[in-house]
Amino acid sequence: MAREIFRKEALDQLASPEGLDRPWSLVPARAWVSLAALSALVGGALVWSILGRIPETVAGAGVLINPGRVRSLQSPYGGQIVELSTRVGQHVNKGDMLAVVNQSELRQALQQAKVRMKELERVDQSQRRLEADRSEKESSLRMTQQESLNQGLLELESIGSRMIERNQELLAAQLAGLKKTREEVSGLHQELAGQLARFRALETKRLATSDAVIAAGAEVVRSDIQLAEMDLKTFEFALKDLEIQQLDAQRRTRQVELKSELRRVALEAVRAELDRSQSEALRESQIMDQRDRIATIEKQLDEQGMIRSPVSGRVVELAVNLGQVIGPGSRCGAVEADDEDAELGLRNLVYLPLSSGKRLNPGLKVRVTPTTVQRERYGGILGKVTRVSPYPVTEESATAIVGNPEIVKALAQPGGMIEVEVELERDANSFSGFRWTSAGPKLKFSAGTTTATRITVEERAPITFVLPILNRF
Questions:
Q1: Which end of the chain offers a freer environment for a tag, N or C, measured as fewer CB atoms within 10 Å?
Q2: pTM of the model
Q3: Which class does domain 55-76+331-472 fall in?
């Protein structure tokens, strides 16, 4: 007999058609409750992933500052600190002397400038004596030349002119007499020629002898010779007149030369005086420049050799010691200005790496927690970004703002850093004077307090972390 696996009653019940008209239950009732809860949870998560927001923050270390309040002390010149007139914590007034720098190089420059000044004055005095002596000699020589030239010109204008006039008058008289004599001889010649013609006519008639004719001809020849001599004399007088005119022209030329020489001598005198004046002016200018240089160096020794407080306030740092040698522009300390000298209230200054700082823009929300309080207990001070440096800043420029190089070194970021300024929200009802995310501590904060800063770069829907492509929409 075969072994029965199922009971007979169960097999009969399954084979019976009585239950075919009833619906089957595929899922138990308890499973429906779990499924509904799971669906609600998934739906809520989906809605949250789309409509919810997760803030993306950038964290960094910062420091509270009061812009314009902490002033750095710098020495404009290098040298040895020979006097310290203040100490850390002491209150000073604006312009008070804090330290004295012995500027050996500047004192040496002053000594050299004074030696140079004496040399310039000595050269000037020596040159003045030489120029005065030379001017006197040149003036005497010029006076002699001018007297000689004027005398020659006077002789040419008076004696020479009168001599030429007399020669011309004598020549004119001689020409007039010669002309008159020639006219008379010419008339006599005509009469002799007529007489000769008559004697020849009488000779043909044998009324006159040949000796008479010859004698008459000889008289005519002598008159011809006289006329020729007079004509020659007239020509000589004409040549002499030309010589007189030439002498007069030479006289006039010499007059022009003498006058030109007088003008040249006068011009040389003016030029010599001008050269002397220019030489004196140049030396005086060099002396004045050297005096100004000495005055400038002395003023630098009197004023810039002293390190003075730029504002009224409290000395918060002294970075030099008595006897220390410093260079030009060296930082000597810092002064925290009084309230009347402070232009703005406390602000938070953050230094971030380039990769983080370049993501920030003015207006972003910030939470600032001073390191002296617990963030888990008190939260942070609310604020917003007001300024982001467009270029990386150096530790030197950061020190000039913060006022303490040690704090800057602690905040410095390797590979360059971006400076971010945060304006803190005020709350007159809070003890600290700032608006906190919670009630805030019972503390007051001052410049130099370091902070932990969180800056909200953006708020993103959770689903964009899973599907970054949705950030484009």
A1: N
A2: 0.42
A3: mainly beta
